[in-house]
Amino acid sequence: MKRFLLLAMLSALLPPGCAHNPYPASPAATLAPRYYAQTAVPAVFHAEEVCLESPNITAASPNERSGLDSGSGDSYFALRAPASERKDVEDKSADAELEGEQEVSIADPLEPFNRAMFHFNDKLYFWVLKPVAQGYNKIVPEGARISVQNFFSNLGFPIRFLSCLLQADFSGAATELGRFTVNTVWGIGGLLDPSSGKELNLQKQEADMGQTLGIYGVGQGFYIVWPFIGPSSARDSIDIAGEYFLYPVSYIRPWYAWLGVRGYEDVNYTSLRIGDYESLKETAIDPYVALRNAYAQYRLQKIKAKKSLKPAPSRPGGVTFER
Amino acid sequence: MKKKIACVVIILALNSAPAYAGAPLDMVRVNVDKVLAVLRDKQLGKEAKTERLETIYKSMFDEEELSRRALGRNWKKLNPAQQQEFVDLFRRLLEKAYIDKILDYTNEKVDFTKEIIISPDQAEVQTKVITSSRQVPIFYRVIMKGGAWKVYDVVIENVSLVQNYRSQFNSIMAKNTPAQLLDILRKRVKQK
Fold it and tell me: Is residue B8 part of a domain?
């Protein structure tokens, strides 16, 4: 029965094929672009390119079908949007979809300044931070470094807790509160992280102020690279203020003690991630653009994940380890 | 002739239909396991490992889909010959960029969390690479092509590789012709 249905659907949906196919193609190519293309790539190449997504329609309702027929761009959208969101762009032309759809990007009016700062941070990393972290690596075993990271991460509790509250993510806030209590008391002041173990399963909630604004609909604004801090956006720069007020380390006085602790935290953090930045740089053709895009994508996803979390707050939070 | 082709199409479609259940995750798992097996094999030298990984890569990824999406709207600005060359250069670029990192693999564990079916022929397989100090989510986006699931994008820590390259190609193509783009890639591949 299932097979019959499938066959019926196929026969009903495949013949219309690609109504907008600008290239005259053989009937076979229009009939079965996907399967045929494998054996006759050069001949039906263009047809395949345009019709590629038409088999999608097996599961689509009639009104969706017209949209899918409109061009090859659909899949670009489909791949990062849940099916429910796909409808929005259906009737745009293929090109508009490619340009106007969720192409993740960020405005960069300060590009010359940002490039200079990128360069500065790059040198800071390779000339200072990395060699120091490497030396530190040799002296301190990994377990200890992870503990230090846990300790600082535990201190970041106020920011995450307050952000969760502001996001009306009460389950997240409760999780953070539980984590802070458990890790501070049983985790020797936060050096250990017993709460993320299997028994308690309280995972760190990646919440920050920029994300909170994003959830309430504030746009990212323009891209900005801060010296020492790195990539940010106009909106996410609020986290600099957030850290100033809510991160306990910021209250250390005198200033050089603060600087020392903050620097040490960075060295420790870097020591666990040597190679990450290098990878990004080596794999990129234009590292500046690659980092900018990675930042935009990462932030967008962080906001999206939190938004989609709301209806089902019981799901554990993200697993990315980022400050 | 038409009928014959239609028959073949239907047979192919029917054969691939049962594969929908859990197939994307299985495909990724099988290939990742193969990669891990190669990496753990202490008898193989670097060359042999690279060669084997390349074979796995070719069966696991849909190179053309990957390239096409990485270029986005610029794909159509390239003529078929240029497109072909681009596919080739892009593969070499990726290989060059990632092979050392993959070969550096020490003792990470890979968890196959779940698969999300986006549409009958698209899915996302979510995995987690667990190292001693952290967990890195790696998602594979797969598409059904010719009866098999193939990877067309890899999302590492929520950053899509294809989108990331697309932003770079967009910025290059804003100032350059397709021929110049290929030239940049050729130089890049030859470097070092």
Answer: no
* Residue A188 falls in which region: left (phi positive, over 0), alpha (psi -120 to 50) or beta: left
User: Residue A2: helix, strand or coil by DSSP?
Assistant: helix
pLDDT of residue A9: 44
CB-based contact B152:B65 (threshold 8 Å): yes
Q: How far apart are CA B167 and CA A105, in angstroms?
A: 8
> What CATH number corresponds to the domain at position B163?
3.10.450.710
Interchain CB distance below 8 Å, A34 and B98: no
Contact: B17, A297; criterion CB under 8 Å: no
- Binary contact (B168, A286; C-beta < 8 A): yes
- DSSP assignment letter at B160: E
Mean pLDDT of chain A: 74
Asked, for residue B4, whether it belongs to a domain, the answer is no
Q: pLDDT tens, A294-311?
A: 999 999 999 988 888 755
Chain B residues touching residue A286 (CB < 8 angstroms): 168, 171-172
Looking at the complex, report in whole angstroms how far the Cα of residue B123 sits from the nearest Cα belonging to chain A: 8
Could you tell me the residue range of the domain that residue B100 belongs to?
Answer: 20-190
Q: Distance between CA A211 and CA A238 in Å, rounded? A: 10
On whether the CB atoms of residues A81 and A52 are closer than 8 A, the answer is: no
Q: Is residue B6 part of a domain?
A: no
> What is the gyration radius of the CA atoms in chain A, in angstroms?
25
Asked whether residue B3 is assigned to any structural domain, the reply reads no
Secondary structure (DSSP) of B20-71: GTTHHHHHHHHHHHHHHHHHH-TTS-HHHHHHHHHHHHHHHB-HHHHHHHHH
Q: SS3 for B103?
A: helix
Q: What chain B residue is nearest to A300 in terms of C-alpha separation? A: B158
- Structural domain tally of chain B? 1
A80 close contact with B: CB closer than 8 A: yes
ipTM of this predicted structure = 0.81
E strands of A82-180, at which residues?
A: none
DSSP for A239-286, please give it: HHHHHHHH-GGGG-SSHHHHHHHHHHHHHHHHHT-TTHHHHHHHH-SS
Which residues of B fall within a CB distance of 8 Å from A31?
2, 5-6, 9
